[in-house]
Design brief:
The protein contains 13 helices and 10 strands. The chain is globular, with a radius of gyration of 21 Å. With about 375 residues, it is α+β, with helices and mostly antiparallel strands. Helix 4 runs parallel beside helix 8.
């Protein structure tokens, strides 16, 4: 599967620059094998009707490790197209963990029945001034006139694919305290939801948006995990989704860092000894980080996610991606950002990784907590 991902990732070069210039062209690229493979890795076997096949063998989706490996290799082609691709994304992780059979079936049917067209999803946790701190969110669920129904109020910010998604999961507060948080499955066409595109300088195709909820009606069938006790509902879903997502985000950064170093090699052909040594050192660090991130993804699949290792992998990978682009400019010359559109795009894109899913200080804190417990490497 990894070799196939490497092969199809090459098809993302070219469309990546088109999408960067005009995000509305995304529909023209959706039938690329790379994007179909990416979606296939996100759909669990129980909900797969027509599996993606490689040499006649079906791709088995739902695994964090499989998604991490494929995401990394596809991001070598372009992380923006991978990020903007239709699919269950983080909403699927929450549905897998909290949704009942009926909710899961209705959700995944959107992706397995081709006549419905492409379906984008959003994961609405982040709030302005709060970031992704789930326990501090202020979006609220207020009781509606009908028993068991609520209305959703508040604003979510920096939501990937939020400007054109059809469905997503929103985290909101129904009662005080960490166990008063609910995860709600929302249809983006429902009255009471407004999506406003936010300006960005990198990953422009992701259509990052601000979502405003003003009285959107929430029925009991939209609340995920509603039959569980409060400690096993909304907050748990947010935490497990973030544990699952962080290796994937790290994989995106690793894929781009790898691509940038190859780009430098191809552009220069020969480097002085000092420059080659810098390149070799960075490659070695990428290999180490790749192994660490994949080990963390395997631990997520095993049900024992090491928070400090996941945080260290995400922190290290995002730093490597930035260092790779800085080294590229150093070795190729500062004017290369004016002369080389691909490198200029990569230079802008990788700056987003450090703040996606929490700024670096959040992950440094988790690593430090692992050190205090004597479990961090």
């Amino acid at each position: 599967m990894e070799k196939h991902a490497i092969d199809v990732a090459a098809e993302l070069r070219g469309p990546d620059l088109v999408l960067d210039a005009d995000p509305d062209t995304v529909a023209a690229h959706l039938d690329l094998p790379a994007l179909r493979l990416h979606q296939a890795t996100m759909i669990p076997p129980a909900h797969t009707e027509q599996p993606y096949r490689i040499d006649g063998k079906a791709v088995v989706g739902g695994s964090c490790l499989v998604q991490t490996v494929v995401t990394e290799r596809l991001s070598y082609g372009d992380p923006g197209l991978v990020l903007v691709a239709p699919g269950p994304s983080l909403s699927g992780v929450v549905l897998d963990g909290l949704g009942d059979a009926a909710q899961q079936q209705a959700f995944y049917r959107r992706f397995t029945q081709r006549f419905t067209g492409p379906t984008w999803t959003f994961f609405a946790l982040t709030e302005h001034g709060k970031g992704s701190a789930a326990a501090e969110l202020e979006t609220t669920l207020l009781p509606a006139a009908d028993p068991g129904h609520f209305t959703l109020h508040g604003t979510k910010r920096y939501i990937g694919n939020g400007a054109h998604a059809q469905v997503g999961v929103v985290f909101a507060r129904r009662a005080p305290g960490p166990f008063g948080i609910e995860a709600v499955l929302v249809d983006a066409t429902a009255p009471g939801l407004t999506a406003d595109l936010l300006p960005t300088i990198g990953l422009t195709g992701a259509r990052i948006a601000q979502l405003t909820f003003d009285g959107l009606l929430v029925g009991p069938d939209m609340i995920l995990g509603r039959t569980r006790r409060p400690s096993r509902r909304g907050l748990l879903g947010a935490r497990e989704a973030l544990h699952f997502y962080r290796p994937l985000l790290a994989a995106r950064a690793i894929g781009v860092a790898d691509a940038v170093l190859d780009h430098v090699r191809d552009a220069r052909g020969w480097l002085p000894a000092a420059g080659q040594a810098q390149l070799d050192t960075l490659r070695a660090r990428i290999r180490y980080t790749r192994d660490r991130v994949r080990a963390a993804a395997s631990a997520v699949d095993a049900g024992s996610p090491p928070q400090h290792d996941i945080a260290a992998g995400k922190l290290g990978a995002s730093r490597l991606a930035e260092e790779a682009t800085l080294l590229a400019v150093e070795l190729l010359g500062p004017t290369t950002l004016l002369e080389d559109p691909w490198l200029a795009k990569a230079y802008r894109d990788v700056r987003a990784f450090e703040i996606m899913d929490g700024v670096g200080d959040l992950h440094r804190l988790q690593v430090f907590q692992g050190v205090l417990r004597g479990v961090a490497r």
